[in-house]
Write a structure and sequence with these properties.
Its cofactor is Fe(2+). It contains seven helices and 19 strands. It has 370 residues and is α+β, with helices and mostly antiparallel strands.
Length: 370
């Protein structure tokens, strides 16, 4: 970081000081509208391994017609449009903070069916930090990222921050031919994430979009013999490289890394659809194959996901936009195509809440192992 400030305070429950590193330059922000969401690093809190839990997908009890979420009456002011044939829906005229449980159940099903649902015109200041967490928690337990920056006093918020005062990310991008990096959020967890909620609070003048790929459509595009082969295989998803990179860069690892072996083809509990559950970010090898076989097959699948523009959607951000997606049926990537060194145009700042969901279940009873 170009500027790092260390704040020290005492935990109420412990005499151990809580050290917070500000992951931004205070001089650049002045009267920033969303200052309470700026990124910090808690360098004390150590978390135990995640424990198994019972999960019940809210989409299972939803009205499939979604009459509560998407009323047909034009007078309601609610509009919904498909962004592409296979993935993505945009909704206007609804405030997430005002949805009732029936509407949230139908939203969970819509996200599973469409992969990602984008809401425009949301009022972040109105709902507040705690209400945002309560809303997300309706869909599943909130995940705490093992290495990332967060919001002060709220570890559940994973902070998205790339600007002129974040040299680490700028250097990371500068060492690659492309800034894209498709992944499914922390897919190495034993019970992987379901719905993720992302709000960008500051966006560049142009660029900084996010793209999603439909893992359901990706699976369906494969030839029947390849689909049959993949349905009997598991792949290793590992969090060890992420932890190793964090330690290399001097960042705190609050939960020790794990790896899981998940079915390559998983079945969504609410829709019954099959999806391709591998991603270039965390999937390392296919169990039971020789190294060359695993590498060749994974590279085929990764290329298929990243280059499948006819089953992808690219969303441009504006203030008041919230995107919710289902990690079980999508992969996504930020697109860092803007001038990160320009203080007026180069800040991309957002907050992410990720919910944990079911243990992946595959075809013919194939289950995850670890």
């Amino acid at each position: 970081m170009s500027t790092t400030t260390v704040l020290t305070k005492t935990k109420e429950s412990s005499s151990q000081p809580l050290k917070l590193n500000l992951a931004y330059d205070e001089k650049l922000h002045g009267e920033y509208k969303y200052a309470e969401y700026l990124p910090v690093y808690d360098e004390v809190t150590k978390l135990p391994p995640l424990q198994p839990f019972a999960f019940h997908d809210r989409g299972l009890v939803a009205n499939k017609a979604k009459v509560n979420l998407l009323p047909q009456d034009p007078a309601s002011g609610v509009t919904a449009k498909r962004l592409t044939p296979s993935i993505g829906t945009e909704i206007r005229g609804l405030q997430l903070s005002q949805l009732n449980d029936l509407q949230k159940d139908e939203l969970a099903l819509l996200i599973a069916e469409r992969g990602v649902v984008v809401f425009r015109g949301q009022d972040f200041k109105d709902i507040g930090i705690e209400k945002q967490k309560a809303f997300a928690r309706y869909f599943g337990p909130l995940h705490i990222h093992p290495t990332g920056a967060h919001v002060k006093d709220h570890l559940e918020y994973h902070n998205i921050y790339l600007g002129p005062d974040n040299e680490y990310r700028a250097t990371f991008r500068g060492n690659r031919l492309t800034s894209t990096g498709y992944h499914s959020d922390v897919s190495y967890e034993h019970q992987t994430p379901g719905i993720t909620l992302l709000a960008l609070l500051s966006v560049p003048t142009t660029g900084g979009d996010t793209a999603w790929a439909s893992a359901t459509a990706a699976y369906e595009r494969l030839s029947p013999p390849i689909r049959t082969l993949l349905e009997g295989l598991r792949a290793e998803h590992s969090g060890f490289p992420q932890a190793d990179n964090a330690r290399r860069d001097g960042h705190f690892v609050r939960r020790e890394p794990i790896a899981s072996e998940h079915p390559i083809v998983r079945i969504h509990p609410a829709t019954g659809q099959k999806s391709l559950f591998v991603n270039p970010g965390f999937t390392k090898r296919i169990i039971g194959l020789k190294q060359e076989e695993s590498d060749a097959l994974l590279q085929l699948l990764f290329k298929h996901i990243t280059q499948g523009q006819d089953f992808q959607v690219r969303v441009s951000w504006e203030e008041g936009t919230v995107a919710l997606w289902d990690n079980r049926v999508t992969s996504h990537t930020a697109i860092s195509d803007y001038d990160v060194h320009n203080p007026q145009e180069g800040l991309r700042h957002g907050i992410r809440l990720t919910t944990l969901a079911d243990k992946p279940a595959g075809v013919h009873g194939l289950e995850s192992t670890w």
